[in-house]
């Protein structure tokens, strides 16, 4: 028996030498994958810098370094982000490789024409988001785990295609000419895509954290609304064509101000749609407590909690965006604040959500009044984003329909 024990120990030791990670502690394995993730992002960022350094100034290098650190942190904090980022990176690299230096290949190369060219990717994104919206509601009322997983997969797939399309569009703008090239967050068409992606990622994060898909249909309704606008804007106004940047937007500030703004917009939209779900559930419980809506809609406590977290995140991002916008204004127009209509309505949006959070945190307000407030707040935000451009004029009058 002693001999057999010695032989077993020798076999185990040999196996550990051949496959050390299978026999190491969970913490050691976790540190390995975390380190590998950080290394992959750092190497990818370094390669991108090597390729595009001629187009970058010192500010843009600083933005790239900050983005690299943020991406590493995001992947460490939320593990599903890793697969998402790596999939998008792979598809983008394939698209850039297929393009080479010939923009016209988008019309003839099968892979580009039907999948990875930016407009094709956006069409896939739009289709998948609408399908995901319907599938989430089917999953909610059928209580089918399989259909729910399908809805989640559709949402992830749509988000992958959307972000891939934005990154490919960025490269396409440079293929049209170095004087045309710019980050694709410069007009309503591009920022509505950004809005859809950020809102979807925020929802997927809360879905993963709370282990429930019950909120999915409501969150995706806001995204489907953005998709409807995009389709109209594409086919009626031909807004999908890449245009040179106007002088007012030719600044590195755009690369950080606009994304920060749309984290806020996406979070506010998510909170509003959850507010709608809250109002439906509370109304159903009051009038028909045993009815279908009362039994199937997400629990009120869950909706209230995620609504609060979304508004808190959105408020933080919107605050940062407003500060960045003031710094940009000082550089472009010589003053931090000019009471331009866009600036004034941005302040109204900020005050609206500041008051919401103040009453929640200091007075303990919850429930139906706060849900109504979140819904109305979305209309205030929507006017600040679209209405100002449509009906008012000022220094920001370059995003009209």
TrEMBL record:
One of its GO terms (cellular component) is plasma membrane. GO terms for molecular function: heme binding. Keywords: Cytochrome c-type biogenesis, Membrane, Transmembrane, Transmembrane helix. The keyword ATP-binding does not apply. The chain crosses the membrane at residues 30-52, 58-77, 84-101, 121-139, 151-168, 188-206, 218-235, 262-280, 310-330, 342-359, 371-392. It comes from the Bacteria. Its main location: membrane. It comes from Candidatus Contendobacter odensis Run_B_J11. This is Cytochrome c-type biogenesis protein CcsB. Residues 185-396 form the Cytochrome c assembly protein domain. PANTHER family: CYTOCHROME B_B6 PROTEIN-RELATED (PTHR30071:SF1), HEME EXPORTER PROTEIN C (PTHR30071). It is found in: Membrane. InterPro entries: Cyt_c_assembly (IPR002541), Cyt_c_biogenesis_CcsA (IPR017562), Cyt_c_biogenesis_CcsA/CcmC (IPR045062).
